[in-house]
Amino acid sequence: MSKVFTIAKGLENMGALRTGGQGSVYKGRRMGPIISAVKLLPTPIHTEDDDDKNFRNFQNEVNKLKKVNERPNPNVVKILASGLTESGSFPYIEMEFIEGPDLEELLKPPHDPVFTIKEVLKLADHLANALSHCHMVGVKHGDIKSNNIKYNIHSGNYVLLDFGLAIMSDEQRRTSIRHAGAIEFMAPEQNTGAMYMATDIYSYGIILYELLAGQVPFPLHDSGETARNAVMIAHMESPVPDVLALRKKNLPAGWTEQKRDIEMRVPKWLLTLISTCLEKDPEKRYLSGMSLQEALFDGSLSTGQPAVSLDQLPDKAAFRNTKPALGATGVTYHQGDKMHISKPLFFALMGMFAISLITCGYLLINQNLPPVPIKTTAADTTKKDTDTPKQATVHDYHSKERANDSAAQQAIKDVIDGERQKAESQKKADSTGTPQDTSTVKQPDNNP
C-alpha cells in the first residue's frame, strides 16, 4: 500500500508510523494542531451495503468501539473516528496520538531489560483498568502486545492502543493471526481464530511475565512458518518456564547486590495471578477485565505483600463517570523508603474513620435505650422477650455482591461456550467444505 493516498476528507496523511501484516499505522493530522494515529486494515470493503457480511461486521464492531469513549479512561486510547478510506475502501480507525515509548522500546537499551517490581505493579494496575473498561462495554481487544502499550510521557499513564483486530471479521482475524500476528502474545484459542475476553487476559499475563523475566515465555526465534507453528504449539501444550529463574538471569549487571536481592522478592500473589492468566483453558483464567481487576485488588491487600498504585487519577469530571481502578491502593516499599498512600486509599481510610466515630457516638448515646422491636406479621405473632432486631452485616453485603458477580461470571461462561461452539463449527466446515451457519451467537441476558 502506498504511503501517498487519501485517508478521509479533512484527514491528512503524514506518513507511515508502523507497517505489518495486520495493517499499517499512519500519522494523521486534521485541521489545526491535532495529531492522530490512523490504523488501516489490510482487507478492503468494496461495498457499504448492509447485506454485505464484512461491512455489517465492521459497522457492528465500530459501534462497540464508540462505547469505549462514552466514559473517558486514562489507560485507553481515545477513538477519534472510523470509517472507510476514500482511496481503496480500506477500513480505518483514527486514534489519539500518544507521545512516549512503548513497552517494547522500554525493554531495550539504554533501558534495563526488566522492570522493577514497583513499575510492574503500576503497569499491571493500568492495563487491568484498561481491560476492565473495554470488557464492560463488550469490546475485546485481541491484539495485546508490548508495542501496543505506550507510556504517556505527559500523564505518566500506560495506555492501551490499536483496536484494529477488534473490528475484523472472524475470517479476517483467523487469516491475520495465522500469518501476521504477534504469535508470542497469543492465547492458545487464537490458533482457531477464537477470541474471548479471557483471550485478552492471557496476553495480559504474557505482558507481566515479559516485564518480570525480560523475555516472553515462548520466544519467536525467526519469522518462518515452522518457527511460528512451534511457538503456537508451545502456547497450547508446553508448561510456562519459571519466571523467577529468568528474572534472576536477566537482572541488570549494574544493579547493586542489595537492589538485586530486593527485586527478586516478587510477591507470591502476583506470581499466582500471572499463572492464572496463563492457563491454557480460557475458562480457568480470569474471565474478564473486571474479575482480573478484583483479583489484583485482593492480592494487593494480602497481608505483608506490596500493594498496587495508580499514580495518575483521571480529572474530576472523568472520575465522576469512570469506575476507579480497583488496584489503586498503595505502593511497593522497603525499609528506609518513604511510604506513599494513594488518594483512593486515603479517602477510604478517612471515610472508615468517620463512620467509626459516628457509630461509637451513637452507641454511647443510645446504650441504655431498649432495642427496637421487630415488625411482626400475621405469620409471626409469637415474639419473645429475647428477640432482637437482625442487623445487616458486612457479610450480608459481600454475599449479595458475590452472588451478583457469580451471575455475571456465569453469563461470561455462556458467551465463551457459544463462541467456542461457533469456532468448532467453523473448523469442521473448513475441513469438510460445508458452509458454516454465520448467524450471530445469541448473547445471554446479563440481568440477574
What is the total number of structural domains? 1
Write down the CATH class. Answer: Mainly Alpha
Q: Biggest sheet, in brief?
A: 5 strands, antiparallel
Number of helices: 13
Look at the structure and name the CATH superfamily: Transferase(Phosphotransferase) domain 1
Give the helices and strands as they follow along the chain.
EEEHEEHHEEHHHHHHHHHH
Query: For the terminal residues, how far apart are their CA atoms?
Result: 49 Å
Backbone shape = globular
Q: Which segments are poorly predicted (pLDDT under 50) over 5 or more consecutive residues?
A: 303-346, 369-402, 437-448
Architecture per CATH nomenclature, i.e. the level-2 architecture? Orthogonal Bundle
Strand order of the largest sheet: 1-2-3-5-4
Helix content: 40-55%
User: How many E-type strands?
Assistant: 7
Give the DSSP E fraction (strand runs of 2 or more residues): 5-15%
Biased composition (Polar residues): 431-448
Region (Disordered): 379-448
Biased composition (Basic and acidic residues): 381-404, 414-430
Protein name: Serine/threonine-protein kinase
